[in-house]
Specification:
Helix content is 0%, strand content 0%. The protein has 82 residues and is mostly loops. The protein folds into two domains: 35 residues, no CATH class; 39 residues, no CATH class. It comes from Aquimarina celericrescens. This is DUF1540 domain-containing protein.
């Protein structure tokens, strides 16, 4: 079994906004992939205070400086999946 970096429907250019595959016409999630996979030309890189789960919480490392568009070394994604 091959392991492919970022090879999921979430990174495929065939994924439509309503999480439907425009090739197969079915609802998909990030755990799906197929042989018709086409990598998006640019992946979203929206890491900043607003997308950090610590933003405006008591465990924020820099509460006086945290602001939209900023990033620190303590950033933690809001939607982490294993």
């Amino acid at each position: 079994m091959a392991i492919r970096l970022g090879n999921s429907c979430e990174n495929c250019e065939n994924l439509m906004q309503n999480d439907t595959c425009k090739v197969h016409g079915v609802k998909v999630s990030s755990s799906y992939t197929c042989d018709s996979f086409e990598m998006k030309a640019v992946l979203k890189d929206n890491r900043n205070c607003v997308t950090c789960m610590r933003y405006e919480s008591s465990d924020c490392a820099n509460p006086q400086k945290a602001a939209p568009g900023m990033l620190c070394s303590h950033w933690a994604p809001q939607n982490a999946r294993a």
